Amino acid sequence: MTIAQFPDVLHLLAPHLNTYDLIACLQVNTLWNSIFIAYLWRTIDDSQRPWRRLLAQFTYPVPTFYHPQEQIAQLVERVPERLLDLFVKYGHHIRRLVIRRPQTVELCLRARAIAQQVQRQQIEDQARAQNSSASSIDVVTQSPFSARDDREVLPCEGITVLRFGFLSPVLTFLKRLDRADSPETPYLTALSATLRRNQQELEPSLAGVHPCVFYQEHDAEDSKLHMITLARSCWQLVLNNPQLQELDMGPFGAHEDTFIVSGRFLKTTLASRQRLRAVRIGVERTTDFLVRLPTTLPHLKMLWYYDKSPAGFNALVESVAKAHGSETENGGKEIIGGVTSGSDGTERMPNLRLFDIVAPTQPRHLKAIFISFPALAMLSIGTLSSDDKGATHRSTAITKTHRDGTSQASAQELATVLRELHVARWDCPPTTLSSINIRFNAVARLNLQLISGYKNLLDLLRTFPALQELQLKKVRDLAEEAEVNYTSEPFFPALKSIRLAKEAFSTPYSLNGLLSILPNLIEANLYTVCSQILASIVEHCPRIEILEFTKKPQYNTQIGLLLTSCTNLKSCVGPGLEIPFPDILNKPWVCKNLQKLDCAITGIPYLTEVEQTSIKNLQSHFSKNITFPLTFDMPRVAKRDPSYTDEDNWHMWHYDEKSVFRQYLAIRSILCDVFDAITKYTDLDTVQQDWMPLSSFTRTLWTSSKRGRPVSSMGRPLKATSRVLSESQARWIHLPS
After folding, report:
1. Which residues pair with 549 in a beta bridge?
2. Strand runs labelled E in 293-391
3. Residue 709: which residues within 8 A CB-CB, separation 6 or more?
């Protein structure tokens, strides 16, 4: 469908559209784009201007249009430019169309059906002319467009990203319409008939797809089961798009059974999509999806596996154990070795880089995952728990085998290339990972939502010796766990960045203990800081470059110590930081690379409202105007003499006016001294401050215009804060010369 054909459709649908009901807008727009737009596009593609012929065959929809049928034909033929202008003018409303009358929907469906009949008749005639013995049924089942023009593509072809998440609102909308007293009942009937026809046409190809069903809700006795095969219609889009690169099949919430797929269907359908690189699968009909994956989609790079049942992983474990296993005491097999050779019978995926799991995972599942997907770089797990009772004997057999020393040669460790690990809930002791003989020597980033006990956290850090970034949401306190003696713990020199949420540590003692064993910490994003934490950072983390926090601390007297001790500090951003101006003038800062500082300078005298009014009235006495209230938004201000006076007008001033002006010059002198001290020892050269009358507590954000946004040694730029003002908002103070 071209841009020139769209205005005709918009003009024909205009009387049936209402763009004021936003809720209906969202529902019908989703339904329109997912189902009917394909049929409408096919109708437009069948012929250049089919609406004149199609409208002549239906009498009842015509009076609903504002123009007679002849005028519509004239508009389509004579003034396409005006319709194109209309489309360009109201193009943003295309995505918000609301179909208020079922006749329009039936018109689209009937138009498509009639156009298909015409095309099929033409194809049959052409086929009979070429080969009189050819069967018309065989020709009809083929694509009606390939026989006419090889250059013309099928409707909805060329899609590279296909997401089926829209089915949930579609089903909700259809459920609301599926009522006996609904005026849209013909619309639902036409939709059901169309989809059932598609089901019959695609039955040989869609044998492994479970249809989607839903019931009526108004009366249990009169309820009828409607088999609306929306899943099959969506799979038709998959079949029509060989260039597909990303396919999203779930999850769908209450309708998560919509796409129950089987390994047979994936093998016969998706295996031909050589460009498919990312797949999201919701619910699995069988348990062989992960087992078949290496042979079905060997070119896949990203997989989101949203099935909540661990049956698929159990099948993967059993499959891998057949090739990598040793006999246990009870006759079973257990995975004890790493990847050996390519002739061992194990099917692997060398291209998979990302794997997202929702189902509860166990250490034995991890072993099978890393064997089947050796190039995995990022793994996301919902819950990591200990092995169940069924795996107890196998784990015992492993332990006994290692103790006896009978299988030391065969139980070689598996070194993974995993770089990033996300775990929502870690419910097993980290030491259990050693039982599966996996070395995580390449993990650089760990995102952990919940873990029980500080000792388990330290054990986890030992499991990942190359860990550089830790994101932690909460450490659950254990009542039976004694306080950890961090002085006896080893250092973690590789860990350079920590990001902690609100409830990560219940007491400052635990956080201080963790900071004490991180000598090379560069970036710290904390929820709040106090004097103890700042002192611990100054003492144990001398290489700190970026410090961010989100909650105003109760005590922050150590901020001056941080600025005068940490030589590598580049940024210190957080609410509630205060620095008395004598601390800035008395002791020089050592952070030469400081580029951003969010703080309040306190202790500076301020003018009362009466004094501010006096200064405003005295502006005419200066050779240059003074912008008031006094601000400090200048790249550089030369220090002025506080005793400056205007000799021509000074004798005419009142005594109170002279006093106010001297006080104003004194305040300005203090600010200039502070600015000179900061710009002398740091890279800060711009001050942006909240607009308020000058007071003893004024928040400012000091930034550097020389280097832009500060970047830590880890290569991550700082987040922009809401207190940063643009350069166009900066104001200048015009001082008398």
Report:
1. 526
2. 302-305, 326-327, 333-334, 354-357, 378-384
3. 595, 596, 717, 718, 720
Cα–Cα nearest to 366, from 379, 375, 354:
379
Contact 633, 687 (CB under 8 A): yes
Q: What gap in Å lies between CA 535 and CA 512, rounded to an integer?
A: 9
Predicted pLDDT of residue 552 = 73
The Cα–Cα gap between 653 and 443 comes to 73
- CA neighbor of 201 nearest in space, from 264, 122, 137, 155: 137
At 266 the pLDDT is 60
Helix (H, G, I), strand (E, B) or coil at 203: coil
- Residues sharing a CB contact under 8 Å with residue 678, sequence separation 6 or more, in sequence order: 584, 589, 684, 702
Q: Rounded to a whole number, what is the distance in angstroms from the first to the last CA of the chain?
A: 70
Amino acid at 400: K
Any bridge partners for residue 423, and if so which?
381, 448
Is it true that the peptide bond before 629 is cis, omega within 30 degrees of 0?
A: yes
Pairing of strands 213-214, 226-227: antiparallel
CA distance 334 to 325: 5
**Mean pLDDT (whole number) for 214-227:** 31
Collapse the DSSP code of 445 into the 3-class scheme (helix H, G, I; strand E, B; otherwise coil) and give the result: strand
DSSP state of 36: I
Counting residues of the chain whose pLDDT is more than 90, the rounded percentage is 6
In the chain, where are the structural domains located?
A: 1-155, 596-729
The Cβ-side half-sphere exposure at 603, using a 13 Å CA radius, reads: 11
Match 């390519």 to its residue by tokens.
342
Mean pLDDT computed over every residue of the chain: 60
Q: What is the mean pLDDT of residues 357-381?
A: 89
Spell 248-284 as b/e; 16+ CB within 10 A means b. Answer: bbbbbeebbbbbbbbbebbbebbeebeebbbbbbbbb
Rg for the chain, CA atoms, rounded = 36
The partner residues of 289 in beta bridges, in order of sequence, read none
Which pLDDT belongs to residue 268? 63
How far apart (Å, rounded) are the C-alpha atoms in residues 613 and 530?
40
Residue 520 binned pLDDT confidence (cut-offs 50, 70, 90): very high
- Residue 495: predicted pLDDT: 92
Query: For residues 635 and 722, what is the distance between their CA atoms, to the nearest angstrom?
Result: 21
**Of 598, 593, 551, whose CA–CA distance to 573 is shortest?**
598
Name the amino acid, one letter, at 622. F
- Band (467; pLDDT cuts 50, 70, 90): very high
To which H or E segment does residue 279 belong? Answer: strand 278-281
Number of alpha helices (DSSP H) and beta strands (DSSP E) in the chain: 23, 25
Give me the residues paired with residue 249 across strands: 281
**Confidence grade of residue 688 (pLDDT, cut at 50, 70, 90):** low
Residues 6 or more apart whose CB falls under 8 angstroms from that of 361 comprise 310, 313, 381, 382, 383, 384, 385
Residue 52: count of CB within 10 angstroms of its CB:
15
Please say whether the beta carbons of 131 and 217 come within 8 A. no
Q: Are 481 and 453 in contact (CB under 8 A)?
A: yes
- Cα–Cα distance measured from residue 473 to residue 168, given in angstroms and rounded to the nearest whole number: 31
- The answer to whether residues 441 and 462 touch, using CB atoms and an 8 Å cutoff, is no
- Nearest CA to 481 out of 429, 536, 424 is that of 429
Q: Is the pLDDT confidence value at 478 over 50?
A: yes
Structural tokens at position 203: 């039955």
The model's confidence at residue 723, banded by pLDDT at 50, 70 and 90, is very low
pLDDT at residue number 226: 33
DSSP-derived letter for residue 446 is E
**Would the pLDDT of 132 be above 90?**
no
50 near 43, Cβ under 8 Å?
A: yes
Measure the CA dihedral 633/636/638/640, to 10°: 10
714, pLDDT greater than 60? no
